[in-house]
């Protein structure tokens, strides 16, 4: 009887453990967002000696667009952010500074991932930084502005989801650009 109780307890314990594996070739958007937020995303290009070089962008596809738009509603700031996939070719810091720490706004970052899908690239630009061309100084967009940009992506998706969606890009006819 004691062995049966131990076996059942172990079975329950092993079933309740959260699976943290992430398939970058068939990514789960919700899992990706959760791992980015809690700092557990751990898919890196490795050097010859096995050292981590940079985080690898998951192979997001058109089918991931609706969830990326949905999760881009999150304007929370995440730090530390060394585990985010960013363009390894860029020498421009990809992060904003919040409370004296390098950080990323989840919504802005997810819209950047989405823009990469639309442009059929790993990375939409050198950095996941949105700029407003109407601004006289280069500054990071606020959460409200990111939500406004998200609305452009939502509207674009409603219009182009069934058509060839690269004919017009979500930020065409706006003052927003990716840096």
| Extended strand count | 7
- Give the C-alpha Rg: 19 Å
Mean pLDDT: 87
Could you tell me the strand content as a percent range? 5-15%
Poorly predicted regions are 3-19
Q: Percentage of helical residues?
A: 25-40%
User: How is the biggest beta sheet arranged?
Assistant: 3 strands, antiparallel
Computed structural class: alpha+beta
Describe this structure in words.
- The protein is of the alpha+beta class and 179 residues long.
- Helices cover 35% and strands 13% of the residues.
- The protein has five helices and seven strands.
- It has helices at 2-16, 29-38, 65-71, 106-118, 143-160, and strands at residues 44-46, 52-55, 77-78, 96-98, 101-105, 130-132, 176-178.
- A three-stranded antiparallel beta sheet has the order 3-5-4.
- The longest helix is centred in the C-terminal third of the chain and has 18 residues, at 143-160.
- It is globular, with a radius of gyration of 19 Å.
- The termini are far apart.
Short synopsis of the structure:
The chain is α+β, with helices and mostly antiparallel strands and 179 residues long. The radius of gyration is 19 Å and the shape is globular. The N and C termini lie far apart (65 Å).
């Amino acid at each position: 009887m004691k062995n049966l109780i131990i076996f059942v307890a172990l079975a329950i314990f092993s079933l309740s453990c959260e699976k943290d594996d992430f398939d970058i070739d068939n990514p789960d958007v919700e899992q990706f967002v959760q791992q980015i937020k809690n700092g557990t995303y751990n898919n890196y290009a490795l050097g010859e000696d096995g050292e981590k070089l940079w985080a690898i962008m998951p192979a997001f596809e058109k089918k991931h667009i609706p969830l990326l738009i949905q999760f881009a509603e999150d304007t929370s700031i995440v730090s530390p952010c060394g585990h985010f996939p960013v363009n390894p070719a860029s020498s421009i810091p990809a992060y904003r500074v919040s409370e004296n720490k390098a950080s990323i706004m989840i919504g802005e970052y997810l819209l950047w991932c989405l823009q990469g899908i639309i442009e059929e690239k790993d990375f939409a630009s050198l950095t996941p930084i949105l700029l407003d061309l109407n601004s006289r100084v280069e500054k990071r967009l606020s959460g409200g502005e990111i939500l406004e940009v998200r609305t452009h992506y939502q509207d674009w998706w409603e219009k182009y989801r069934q058509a060839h969606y690269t004919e017009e890009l979500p930020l065409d006819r706006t003052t927003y650009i990716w840096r």
